[in-house]
Amino acid sequence: MKALLKGLRPYRVSVACIVFLIFLQCLSTVYLPHQMSDIVDIGIVRGDVPYILRVGGLMLGVSVAAAACSITAGFLSSRVAASFGRVLRSKVFRHVENFTLHEFDQIGTASLITRTTNDIAQVQQLVNMMLRLMIRAPLTAIGGIMMAFYTDAVLAIVVVVVMPILGLVIYLVYSRGITMFRAMQKKMDKLNRVVRENLTGIRVIRSFNRIQYEQERFHQANFDLTNTATKVNQTMASLSPAMMIILNFSTIAIVWFGGIRIDHGDMQIGSLMAFIQYVTQILFSIMMVSMMFFVIPRATASAARINEVLHMVPEIQEPLQPVQPNGEKGAIAFEDVTFSYPGAEHPAIEHISFQAKPGQITAIIGGTGSGKSTLVSLIPRFYDVDAGRILVDGVDIRDMSQQDLRQKIGFVPQRAVLFSGTVADNLRYGKEDATDEEIRYAADIAQATSFILEMEGGFEARLDQGGMNVSGGQKQRLSIARALVRRPEIYVFDDSFSALDFKTEAKLQVALRQELQEATVIVVAQRVSTVMDADQIIVLDAGQVVGIGRHRELLETCQVYQEIVSSQLAEEETA
Questions:
Q1: CA neighbor of 554 nearest in space, from 370, 365, 376
Q2: Would the pTM count as exceeding 0.85?
Q3: CA distance 375 to 484
Q4: Domains of the chain (ranges plus CATH)?
Q5: Which residues contact 518 (CB under 8 A, 6 or more apart)?
Q6: What is the pLDDT of residue 83?
Q7: What is the pLDDT of residues 349-364, one digit of tens each?
Q8: DSSP 155-172
Q9: What CA–CA distance (Å, rounded) separates 310 from 523?
Q10: Is 115 within 8 Å of 306 (Cβ atoms)?
């Protein structure tokens, strides 16, 4: 609740206006029953028609003013709640953007999507209802209680008896509902995850003919969420009839004891009608608050999940005083680097030491799981090392700002990622002000111009989300062109030629070598043909360096490299 009020501080003026308008509306609501009792006792009983018209007109004017206040307060409440949701979504998204890959894995992508959309929507709905109901209900209830005691203090004992009963009913329903709402949000995460896996893996699902299995998995998650939601709604729905029963029995008690007091001459008929109105206002105010309990448990669970994201501190922090590199541009040095993934029993890489200099191509090769991709992921500081250090331009990357570090790097990931938009938009992703000539030149080097021009619209052709309307090899060439447009000091190709045929790869290698003569180039590959012309080849095995040198040197000195070459010999000869 404190965090919620803190989040509403920027809208304090609007909230103050809402409170004032609702106060006027509640004041009119308390005022009207008193005037009604006067009309009954003075106007109708005594037959004073002018008095009825005068007071009735006044009541009509007050009702119109109350309606205007209610409409204005409702408009401002909706506007404040929508703005609050917008700001909260923006804060969550910006905070998530700073997460390391470990934080993403820890919470889960599906859960982050649910928290940024559904959970914030629940909190936004709570803010809207709080501004409209949680302010109006207490004011109306307090005013009704005061006027009820003012009208007849003895009959007001009925209110004193009813209030604890209402509080007990609300507590029992609320305590059961909040636990169930927390479980429901987790099951919504599960449903979101199942849907996301089905959409992203639809090709694998169809190729293995697992559509029926996935449908059953979805139905299980769907029905699990539905059953929980049904139980929650049944529990919360029981509150409304319970409140109505208490309200009706309270009205019966008031009429019963009020009739006795009227018969004894201690009370007027108009006062009894006003008293019933006041008690109805009190109980309906409590019912308005009870409506909040349909929202509060779920919003409370959602707020806890949002706070879990906002309070999560990223493992990688910016240095307090970033160091500006002044050494050789593009130079990379690994000094006894060891890194382990969280929870892993053994390090992914350990005791890695080598240097990569500008104007050289450094290739990294090894078997599956040897730590090749892990090693290059440490250069842009996707993870922090456990021991040792990585130097870029002579500066430890932990002492540089992440923006300065990544500005120096053109990273082509193992899995090519494209975004919805035009081909030109994707190529400008690393350099927004790139000219058409720069884009065309980068595409020429990446051997991508031919298929781009064959697409409808050329460089303005639309790409689907994830580049689903182009092949794997075309994705890789577009990703390489995107890095080339940026023209960084360091190029990292993480197995970025695996989907290319030998002929296209050979052309690309020649073009890259001519273009990147002054840059530092690091190439991760599994093909010997990709790395054999590199200035130095680093051979990894089980996370350790087992050989460094050129192709011919490693053929004579490194057994692991010899095994890799021999396993690909037939394929190399065919190429």
A1: 365
A2: no
A3: 22
A4: 2-310 (1.20.1560.10), 332-574 (3.40.50.300)
A5: 330, 358, 359
A6: 85
A7: 888 898 888 888 888 9
A8: TTHHHHHHHHHHHHHHHH
A9: 37
A10: yes
Average pLDDT along the chain? 79
d(CA 23, CA 502): 78
Rounded to an integer, the average pLDDT of 46-74 is 69
160-163 long-range contacts (CB < 8 A, ≥24 apart) are 162/246, 162/250, 162/283, 163/286
DSSP letter at 313 equals P
Cα 432 from Cα 434, distance rounded (Å): 6
Q: In the block, which residue shows the tokens 């490693």?
A: 554
Least confident of 59-73, 83-97, 234-248, 348-362: 59-73
Contacts 24+ apart (CB under 8 A), 566-569: 568/527, 568/528, 568/529
What residue type is 425 in one-letter code? D
Q: Residue 465 contacts by C-beta under 8 Å, 6 or more apart in sequence?
A: 419, 420
Q: What DSSP string runs through 200-226? A: HTHHHHHHTT-HHHHHHHHHHHHHHHH
Tokens 């003569």 belong to: 517
Q: What is the DSSP string of 64-111?
A: HHHHHHHHHHHHHHHHHHHHHHHHHHHHHHHHHHT--HHHHHHH-HHH
Whole-angstrom Cα distance, residue 486 to residue 439? 10
Q: Tell me the average pLDDT across 315-330.
A: 78
Q: If residue 405 lies in a helix (H) or strand (E), which one and from where to where?
A: helix 402-407
Strand ranges, E, within 374-515: 387-392, 395-396, 409-412, 421-422, 462-463, 490-494
Three-state DSSP at 392 gives: strand
Rounded CA gap, 90 and 357, in Å? Answer: 41
